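Give me structure tokens for this 260-residue protein.
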Amino acid sequence: MRILITNDDGINAPGLKVLEEIATELAGPDGEVWTVAPAFEQSGVGHAISYTRPMMISQMDERRFAAEGSPADCVLAALHDVMADKRPDLVLSGVNRGNNSAENALYSGTIGGAMEAALQGVRAVALSQYYGPAIKDAPDPFEASRVHGLSTMRALLERGVWTDDDYGIFYNINFPPVAAADVKGLRACPQGFRRDMGFGVQPVHSPSGRRFLWVTGAPQQQPTSPGTDADLNLKGYISVTPMRADLTAHDALEALKAIE
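Here you go.
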């Protein structure tokens, strides 16, 4: 198998090393693992692309490239330049430092990389490691994803739903904030929503007196509705959520016919 890996934490991030281990085992002895990842951290950029400026790309090693762009940029660079002669069979994005459950998925560059691959017709999965008190001071906070990542991916490739239609399915995997031995299992589930937990801004002043705004987050230990991703993660389960890039609210279309 020929696998492309990327992330939004940057090419030197520890989670990318975990993903490389998973991808190498998944590709097998006759496979290939290619890396095209952002030169610098790109957390929170979502599905952004560098449409109005060029990006520099540098080869760091064999099959390893750093691009000055977003994760979606990196996928485009890989598919249309670095690996243009032969596309990958699979794109993996992550392993993100922190969860991309619930509404976090909408801001995530990790998800954005997987989404772009799906739009380009390539199977894609985003992987993230939930952080929390139980692993805050652990020697390896990525232990759950490192130990369970390969089996999770194999299960998904063997028994998951994969489509080649427009806005094809891609997957969002989140590993729970617990030690690997405490992972309770794997659950397919919908995306949740943390009520009253959205992003905000905090004004600050620089030493020169200029006013700036820092974007602020919120505590991540509040569960979502029962059976949704963050709820299951906080209960010790690996969540697997199928996604599409189609933003249509299909449930509202029939009612909307009243305006026609």
